[in-house]
Design brief:
The chain is mainly α and about 325 residues long. The chain has seven helices and two strands. Strands 1-2 form a two-stranded antiparallel ribbon. The longest helix has about 170 residues. It is rod-shaped. The mean pLDDT is about 75.
Amino acid sequence: MDLGECSKIHDLALRADYEIASKERDLFFELDAVDHLESFIADCDRRTELAKKRLAETQEEISAEVAAKAEKVHELNEEIGKLLAKAEQLGAEGNVDEAQKVLHEVEKVRSRKKDAEEEYRNSMPASSFQQQKLRVCEVCSAYLGLHDNDRRLADHFGGKLHLGFIQIREKLDQLKKTVLEKQEKRNQDRLKRREEREKEEMKKKSTSTRSRSREHRRSRSRDRKRRRSRSSSRERRRSRSREKEKEREKEREREREKEREKERDRRRRHRSRSRSRSRGRRHSHEQSSRHKSSRDRERSSRDQSRERDRRDGINGRTDSRRADDRDSGDF
């Protein structure tokens, strides 16, 4: 195929530098090569599909049995062409013995092809068999005839176009495998680095958690000590407050006792005063009672004398009245 000159720079020194650099690290230029070769393969496959459509439109349809027999003839033709191309290559290289062995194999395949053509000829009418049946090559998208001779088959399968597409397809498969291997290796390296990072992070976390736990324990011990000191200080303060409260209570009790003593003294004084007063009152009462009794006596004597006088007066008046009545003669 006339593609023109390659736009890339082909230099042996650059190739050597690339091979040395690719050993140290992956540059992934294989991806560019895969894309470049896939464009050729895609173009070839597209032309193959178009050729198959044209053949389906122009040629008569045959049954599945006849198509299978024709396919067998095509496969034998392809095998013969590949063997002849291999024999020519071995002869060009000077390996005559191997080339002779390949030619003996070609003769065997030719006999098998003859039998397959006989079966194919007997399975269809003579008018249809005379029609040239074509087939599209799956490798280079070229047309192959069912009745092509060995020379044309050898030229096709040993030609540069067919061999070039074979080499492209093989190289593409090889590059895809290498790319997949490198990607898997790179992914594994990433996973390893990630695992190492996770392990380091776990170690850091474990160390941090240990330090935190230690710090937490220390803080807890500090808190316990503080609590103990606080509790001890509280107990001390409580004991001191209790002692102070006891002292205050004792002081209060003393004051109360003093108050009681004072109250007792007051009561004693009051009792002594009340006794003296009661004595004075009794004396005065006795005196007053004496005066009262004398007075009463005097009054009673006066009353008696008055009663006597009144009685005497009444008796005198009655006597006088009686005397007067007597005198008057009324009695």
